[in-house]
Amino acid sequence: MKTRKLVKRIEIEEMFTCTLELKSSLKGQQRDSISLQYLKPGTGESQLFYLEGQGDVILVEVQDNNRVVIGRAEIQVSSFSDAHLCLNLSMPADNYGSAKMLQGGLAVDTIIYDMVLEAAMRAQNFNSKMLHISGSWKWLLDEFSDYYGLSDAYRKLRYLCYIMNVATPTKDCLELTYELLLPVIKARDDRTLTRQERSILLDCEDRINVLLAIVFENYKSLDEHSITGLSELFGPISDCAAPALAPAVQIFSVLHDILSNEAQSILRSYLQAAAAKRCRRHMIETDEFMSSNNDNLLTDDMTISAAYLKMKTLCINISLEIQADIKIHDQNILPSSIDLPNIAASLYSTELCKRLKGFLSASPPSRPLQHVAELLIATANFERDLDSWQVRPVHGGVLSRELFHDYIMVWIEDTRLHLLDYCKAEKLSYPAASTTSPFVEQIYEQIRESINEYGVVINRWPQYLMSLESAIADVEREVMKALEKQYMETLMPLRDGIPKILEKHVQRLTRRQSVAPYVVPNQLGTFMNTVKRMLDVLHCRVEDILKSWASYLTIANGTTLFGEQMNSITVMLRKKYKKYLQAIVEKIVSETQANRTTRLKRILEETKETEGESEMRERMQALRAQLSDSIHNLHGVFSCRIFVAICRGFWDRLGQIVLRFLESRKENRIWYRGSDYALGLSYWLICQETRNEIPCADPG
Fold this sequence. Notes:
Largest sheet: 4 strands, antiparallel
Number of strands: 8
Shape: rod-shaped
CATH class of the largest domain: Mainly Alpha
Radius of gyration: 50 Å
CATH topology of the largest domain: Tetracycline Repressor, domain 2
Oligomer: single chain
Number of domains: 5
């Protein structure tokens, strides 16, 4: 509480005496030596009191000539109006002694000392950078105080008052303040201070607390070379404690019981205010992106990318601030009960989280592009750093996964829908002559590019691998459906369950093909080559990327394990490939059975006992020619592996025909010999034709 001087004038009849006393001066049964004052009526006498606060009370007692109490009253100081108070407001702050002399009082020696002290300060150009009194002026002050018997506490308090008038948050100022304050506080604890000294001390304490607040609330912005003691520029983050911080902590510990919860709470509030100031300065650069009218600002890719870059820089700078706090804390300047990193980080983390939420809401990321990925990495690294620095998590702080979760799920769904939309049949053009479908090659290239964009997400949060796998599996199924729809007319003769009308139409076609064998269309080759490439190459590439992210991890979602979706696609492609491969073999076999001259069973039935191998060769000449044309056609349409697989399937089917024929006629050995000739010739023929097309192939 600032020192106030209250002058109360009493004018009453001469037969009465009035006593005035401050209630705060009563300490149990003891009084200050000058606490009780007698004022004679009619003399206009006045008395100077030193208040300890507005809550003080003046005790008034009226006595007669025989000292009999006529009446008593308690007057609250706060109830006085300006008319009743005579405050020292008309004199400058540095003329305290002169003002007191003009008002009059008992302590003339202190008034004169104050005047000498003021003269010394003016002579030595006393200012914020020149706080020490030295030389002859110091000698004069010492001699004067010794001669008049001024207490050391008063001298230090009066000097401290003048220092507070020009005080700055610098090491020299704070060290001098601590040097002057410490013995005064000890004297107060020893109850040796006068009332006047206690009043001055209260005023000094208030002003020192203001100075300490400035120090602690700007502990990273203190500058010894600045006039104000504070840096005017928001420069690089310093990880070394400012020189003024140590004496500030010493002064704070003198004025407060640092072990008390109240003192610790005060210091924490100062440090949190400092963190708030630093955080605010960092966030100024991103304020423009938080405006409700920023729809017109983020319209082009360059602007959006720059905005995300600034948010990334913000995350890095806040992380550096906390790292600097850790290093300052490790210098053991602050009290052990004050955990600076956690105090500052709690505010930094919550404020950064609010800013990130607001920014992402105002400028939502549409997909994990590079600038989005960089911000995501910076946010995840911030959270990881706090954990590695053993900073306690705080409610409302940065949780990078929660910040990006909704956006990641939207990205995955958008990727799925975009790729599914690309698979729509009406958007597919019929390809020109090609070994594989360009559509499938393009869509799988898009799938790989889309998956690779999620690397930054999956590497940090593998949980999203399940959702991504499911989305990609849906796309691959749709690719297969779109491919079948694209080649629907080509595949129709191979499908099972053909309607009767179409079946009759196919039979008519096969009868005409008895003269002209069935020719496998190039489109069927493109389809089968594409399915085989999907099974052996394209799908495996996608699966390998996903499996690389799932290495050494056990990821489960309910009863579903990672990899089930990819396995289901592999099974589906194998079934499709096998189904259409068997259908092609059946189609070729049906072609050989449609004509009497090429029907193997009929050839075997017409075999006679007297016929030899030459006659059998002649009988199978038509079948041989048809097989040769079919094999040549197959090789020109299908890839090598598919071609060999069809030839093997065709040989197996011929063998089944012969086997069933023999099983139905076990009693006739003639057909055994004819079948042996037929199988031998068929195998030789297939091998010969296959080797002619592919020298290294062997259907057996």
